[in-house]
Specification:
With 229 residues, the protein is α+β, with helices and mostly antiparallel strands. Helices cover 44% and strands 23% of the residues. It contains eight helices and seven strands, in the order H-H-H-E-E-H-H-H-H-E-E-E-E-E-H. Helix 4 runs antiparallel to helix 5. The two termini are 26 Å apart. The relative contact order is 0.09.
Amino acid sequence: MSRSERLLQLLQLLRNHRYPVSGADLAFQLNISLRTLYRDIRSLQAQGAQIEGETGLGYVLREGFVLPPLMFTPEEIEALVLGARWVSERTDSELAGSARQALAKISAIVTPALRYRLDESPLLVGPTDSSLLCQQLVLDIRQAIEAEHKLVIRYGDRDGRQTERTIWPFAIGFFDQIRLLVAWCELRKEIRNFRLDRITNLQTTGNKYPRRRQTLLNEWYRQNNISRQ
């Protein structure tokens, strides 16, 4: 590849990692020497890219540097279309609308050949029982997560027993047949999972919970031994 293509690919690799990635890993993925990698890093830094790190510690691209438009491959276009179609059919109205808008923006900048691939993708999302998707609950919970607000829910266990919980919502898991809310439960004093189809009542309190949602999410990752790039 040309040097300009390599620099763009290096930027994209850095964008894909939220935490420092070693120079050796970057050089391996780009199929270049470490010496060439260090030279490319310096070139990007000179152009304004906020790349932090040094030899032996790894590198991370900080926010604030805008990548120039990248050309999508046909496979990337189809992956985006399939993902957007899934979101449009299986999430709340706001996310569905945002997915459609994102595709419209992509359609406006790609080549005619890729635009055809985007509009005529043969990858389809099949129908599902919309009653299982709890779309309004998803919207209400997403808004509470964004604001870091406590929720009061009425929740039924698998045996039908009802309890009232005050929770700190911080994540939603989207599975084929269920939606799962991950939250700190004040009743149990720990992080718990709640199936949305078992929530019989939900009230927003408008009160902020005392910990940041990202802190809670990171704690959940550690508890479940989930690594993050």
